[in-house]
Structure formats: structure tokens, C-alpha cells
Design goal:
alpha/beta, Rossmann fold, five-stranded parallel beta sheet, 10 helices
């Protein structure tokens, strides 16, 4: 797996942010290259339940719909396109979580996680920097993904879609994480890839680095 831009090293971050106390990580597209995994899960469910639709649903288009978005938002958009009409939101999310658990087993860690990012997360942990994941995904999905690639132990907690009233682009998920860590914005660095996520991160008033390495 080649990165479109280099990931920073831990020493880079210490030099740039001397007051660094915590790193908050978006998950999909930032830590892991998983938009395609989500897209394949959507396609599997669509093909199982919409027999009259064209089998050649474009994965690239589904990936775009997934970027930075919650499952309820993507579900609503797909329903507006005439898909997944047999579901309500609750039943769809339950099915999506089960499908993701099956889908993730098809992927090797090295296909989803670059070594440089893994090394950065481990190095920050060794140096006592607090870390948390702030994601628009469901908690069950986030837990499965992090366990699959062997990273769960390095994060103190996960702020998932269901943990806040408002999701990205609202800064509320990041503000909750900062409050839980008892840190001020100048002590926090956020990595984000999507425009939705970057808007949320910047509005939290924390330090922000756009994560473009998987693009």
C-alpha cells in the first residue's frame, strides 16, 4: 500500500505541538482505508434485498457516499434512490453491523492499515499521549475494525455515532472527547480526512492535520 502523502512521525508532532496531550483520530479514511469495506457491505445488502436492481452497483459511488457520513445519512440517501426500502433505520443498521463483521474478515490488515500509521499510534501510546477514536460509524462497527487490525488497545475510548446528539460536521463529538479527556483545545491534535470531519475538527478549535495519505 502506497501513501499519497507521508504520515508524520511522532517526533514531528512533538516538535510542532509542544503542548500535545492527546490525539483524536477519525477512523474510516484516516486510520484505516475502509470506505471500500463499508461500500461492499452496502452493496451486499442492496443485492440481497433489491432483486430488481442492476447487479453492477458502482462501488466507487458507494464509497463517495460513505465518506465522513453516518449510516443513517447514507441509508436515507439510498432509500431516496429507491434502494433498501424494505428496512427501517434501526433494522438496517443492525443488518449493516452484522454484514460489516463478515466483510472485514475478507481483508488483511496490511490492505487496510499502513505501517507508518500503526507505528505513529504505537509510538504516541508509548510516550504517554492519550488517544481516542472519534467516528461517525456505529460503535459495534468501530470496535470490530480496530480489533481486526490490532489497534484497539492503544485508544482510551471511542466516541461513536450514537454517543452524541449531533454528528460531524458538528464539533460535538470532538468536544465530548476533549471533555472526557479533561484537556483544552490547545492540547489536542485531530487527524481527519473528509470535508465533513475537517469542518467538525476545525470548529472544535483544536490543532488539525488533514489526513490525505490514503487518497
Amino acid at each position: 500500500m502506497l501513501l499519497s502523502q507521508p504520515a508524520p512521525t511522532f517526533s514531528d508532532l512533538v516538535d510542532q505541538f509542544p503542548d500535545l496531550g492527546a490525539i483524536l483520530w477519525d477512523l474510516d479514511g484516516t486510520i484505516l482505508m475502509t470506505e471500500v469495506v463499508h461500500a461492499n457491505a452496502y452493496k451486499t445488502i442492496i443485492n440481497q434485498n433489491d432483486e430488481d436492481l442492476d447487479e453492477s452497483i458502482d462501488i466507487a459511488e458507494l464509497e463517495k457516499k460513505c465518506m465522513g457520513q453516518t449510516d443513517p445519512r447514507v441509508f436515507k440517501e439510498l432509500q431516496q434512490l429507491g434502494m433498501l426500502t424494505k428496512y427501517d433505520e434501526k433494522s438496517f443498521i443492525e443488518h449493516k453491523n452484522l454484514t460489516m463483521r463478515s466483510e472485514i474478515t475478507k481483508w488483511k490488515t496490511e490492505d487496510l492499515l499502513h505501517t507508518d500509521l500503526k507505528n505513529l499510534i504505537i509510538s504516541a501510546h508509548k510516550h504517554g499521549i492519550k488517544q481516542a477514536v472519534v467516528t461517525s460509524s456505529e460503535r459495534d462497527t468501530a470496535e470490530v475494525l480496530l480489533e481486526h487490525v490490532g489497534l484497539r488497545e492503544y485508544f482510551q475510548f471511542i466516541v461513536a455515532r450514537e454517543d452524541t446528539e449531533y454528528n460531524k460536521p458538528s464539533p460535538q463529538p470532538y468536544l465530548k472527547a476533549m471533555d472526557d479527556l479533561e484537556l483544552k483545545s490547545n492540547e489536542v491534535l485531530i487527524f481527519e480526512d473528509s470535508e465533513v470531519g475537517l469542518t467538525a475538527a476545525k470548529e472544535s478549535q483544536s490543532h488539525v492535520i488533514p489526513a490525505r495519505w490514503y487518497y
